[in-house]
From TrEMBL:
Pfam families to which the protein is assigned, alphabetical: Peptidase_S8 (PF00082)
Record family assignment: Belongs to the peptidase S8 family.
Protein name from the UniProt record: S8 family peptidase
Peptidase S8/S53 domain: residues covered: 160-438
Species whose genome carries this gene: Roseobacter sinensis
């Protein structure tokens, strides 16, 4: 049995290198121009100080040789995401320091962390691939059967618009089973002058970054094949997701054992892994596969993972292979928050002895004797949690192809919820520290992500009835109002009598006005008059009274005048002719339509069968989905409840019937319902007044 513990003995710290993260204030105080990216071994123009006194004192003490940024500026278009903006400052302020003092990197990191202006500092740690070569003929693709991948392929085999970033030793760019699915990748390894892990030496390309992520180990090629080797091409093997796009990001380089030249492994620094994560996310990766790790946590890697999560990218990582030597020790990046961590099982669905246990494990997948593509256009079998992880990444890509709107959190939740529960003892809970939620199940995960109906077999094919239109009962007619009697006829009145004109009277004599009467003149002597006057004077003087003289009345005036009479009446106008004769009263008009009142309408038609309740028709006869067809590509709508052989019963409320041509069924009239034992539900129906029958 091969040794599954692939972590070399001795320290895993990269000598002569530390990683620091500056505060925002310190970044603004910097006076040195710090370059971004690899140094490629050139130090002539590289700064060894930052221009911040508190930090430069420590840098001088450790004889800093070069300083370079690990990440370039964050595009402003991505800063609208609050989660991304929160970690952007940390990424831009992260730098790698190479020094020549020979001091322990962990002690140098502690000294730098104490300096004002530094929020975090750590040594740089190697990361190792998590697999060891095994018998090339062992377990021919048994893992695909174990996770029910063939059943999932009946629904979908993948797509070309989902990208999986493979952060590993690179990929064999010319492998016939991988080349059609590759997109542009990147070589992010930058270890100039670095000391390799004890007992190993570097081989191949480990200096400078470029756009040729060629695999020199085979590990990354093997991982990529399990995720997305081309299927149905008559060559080699097949990946979980046949048509997915693979983005090779080389973060591990080739190291060889000094005493065993056949012991070839992949190793790289946590800083290069972090830079690779950032590059893959910024260049369109939807899922990241990290089949690598070591026992040390670093802030630079943790920040990069947080950046990927904030951008909606699913990060899948291997639990690690050191359970036999360091039981329960977490491996990073698998133990970082929001990472989908994967352990390994064998063909008996038991935890592989090397697979690390721990509370952060999410699921397990086949990881022993997994056959896949290998370096130099070959194929091989390997074992490790590195081989289990791409099964999960491939399943995540398959789900994303089936339903592109799924988020990273939704994909991870469905994978966990549909896993087959596994436990070492019957009383163990699920999830547990050995298997997490259990062994992934591709068929259940795809059906949960993209639900559809399972059509019953056609026995024999029966032409379905036309779609049911709801029965419409006509409203009752308005009640008959009684006829009102005509208004009474008033009798004709005779004209008023005509008064005959009398002849006019003769004219009166002319009227002469009497003159006014003049003063009255008495008839007597003047002496009487004078005597009367004297008596009157005596009386006024107080003498004895004497009898009063009363003159006689004045006689009326006599004259020829006559009293004036009133004028005569006007002459009589001639009589008017009589009015026309009175027309007789007309009889009332006939009462319509209320005489006689119409009889009540007939009773409503009998219930519409089968429209009470209305049962939607089944799909067209013998219509079955082709492999790979899903609800999102226009197949079956939302099948929240399926139906089986017992009939067409079920919840069809979300069914999309728009794709079927029902024109041949008309409105159902003339349909031969007797084949189903139905009466004609349309017989005797009335015209709805809108050009159709109801």
């Amino acid at each position: 049995m091969a040794d599954y513990d692939d972590l070399p003995e001795g320290p895993q710290v990269v000598p002569g290198q530390v990683i620091i993260k500056l505060t925002q204030t310190a970044q603004r105080q910097m006076t040195a121009a710090v370059p971004t990216g690899p140094m490629r071994g050139m130090t002539a123009d590289a700064p060894c100080e930052l221009g911040v006194d508190t930090i430069d004192k420590v840098l001088k003490k450790c004889k800093a040789r070069t300083i370079n940024r690990l990440h370039g500026p964050i595009p402003t278009s991505t800063l609208s995401n609050a989660a991304t903006a929160e970690v952007a400052g940390d990424l831009v302020g992260t730098m790698r320091v190479r020094y020549d003092s020979g001091d322990d990197p962990e002690q140098v990191a502690k000294d730098l962390k104490k300096a004002a202006g530094v929020t975090d500092a750590s040594a740089e740690y190697y990361r190792f691939s998590s697999a060891t070569p095994n018998d090339p003929d062992f377990g021919q693709l048994w893992g695909m059967q174990a996770i029910n991948a063939p059943a999932a392929w009946d629904r979908t085999t993948g797509c070309s618009n989902v990208v999986v970033g493979v952060l590993d030793t690179g990929v064999d760019l010319n492998h016939p089973d991988l080349a059609p699915n590759l997109v542009q990748g990147r070589d992010m390894v930058d270890l100039p002058g670095a000391t390799p892990p004890p007992g190993f030496h570097f081989e191949g390309d480990n200096v400078g970054r470029d756009s040729i992520p060629q695999d020199e180990v085979g590990h990354g090629t093997h991982v990529a094949g399990t995720i997305g080797a081309v299927g149905n091409n008559g060559t080699g093997v097949v990946g979980v997701c046949w048509s997915v796009k693979l983005m090779p990001v080389k973060v591990l380089t080739r190291i060889v054992n000094n005493t065993d030249p056949l012991d070839v492994r992949g190793t790289g620094s946590s800083a290069d892994v972090a830079a690779g994560i950032r590059w893959a996310v910024d260049n369109g990766a939807h899922i990241l596969n990290l089949s690598l790790g070591s026992l040390s946590s670093t802030f630079v890697e943790r920040d990069a993972v947080a950046y990927a999560v904030s951008r909606g990218v699913l990060v899948v990582a291997a639990m690690g292979n050191h359970e036999q030597r360091n039981p329960g020790a977490p491996s990073y990046p698998a133990a970082y928050p929001n990472v989908l961590s994967v352990g390994a099982v064998n063909q008996a669905k038991q935890r592989a002895p090397f697979s690390v246990r721990g509370p952060h494990i999410d699921v397990v997948a086949p990881g022993v004797g997994i056959r896949s593509t290998d370096w130099d256009d070959t194929y091989s079998s390997k074992s490790g949690t590195s081989m289990a992880t791409p099964h999960v990444a491939g399943l995540a890509a398959l789900m994303k192809c089936c339903k592109s709107s799924l988020t990273a959190d939704q994909i991870a939740d469905i994978i966990r919820q549909t896993a087959e529960p596994l436990r070492d003892n019957p009383g163990d809970p699920v999830p547990n520290d050995s298997y997490g939620a259990g062994l992934i199940d591709a068929q259940k995960a795809i059906n949960r992500a993209c639900p559809r109906f399972t059509l019953p077999p056609c026995r024999p094919c029966i032409i379905p009835p036309p779609p049911c239109r709801p029965c419409i009962i006509p409203p009752p007619p308005p009640p008959c109002r009684p006829c009102l009697p005509p208004p009474p006829c008033r009798p004709c009145l005779p004209p008023p009598p005509c008064v005959a004109c009398l002849p006019p009277p003769p004219p009166p004599p002319p009227c002469i006005a009497c003159p006014p009467c003049g003063p009255c003149i008495r008839r007597g002597s003047a002496e009487e008059a004078a005597s009367g006057s004297a008596q009157a004077s005596a009386a006024g003087s107080g003498d004895a009274a004497s009898p009063t003289f009363t003159p006689p009345p004045c006689p009326p005036c006599v004259g020829p005048c006559q009293p004036c009479l009133p004028p005569p009446p006007p002459p009589c106008q001639p009589c008017l002719p009589p009015p026309p004769p009175c027309r007789p009263c007309l009889p009332p008009p006939p009462c319509f339509p209320c005489r006689p009142c119409l009889p009540p309408p007939p009773p409503p038609p009998p219930p519409c069968f089968p429209c009470r309740p209305c049962v939607p028709p089944p799909p067209p006869p013998c219509f079955f989905a082709s492999p790979g067809q899903s609800s999102e590509t226009g197949a079956y709508g939302d099948p929240s409840a399926g139906y089986g052989d017992a009939g067409w019963a079920g919840d069809w409320s979300g069914y999309d019937w728009s794709g079927y041509d029902w024109s041949g069924y008309g409105d159902g009239s003339g349909y031969d319902w007797s084949a189903y034992g139905y009466a004609d539900p349309y017989a005797g129906w009335y015209d709805d007044g809108e050009g159709g029958s109801q």
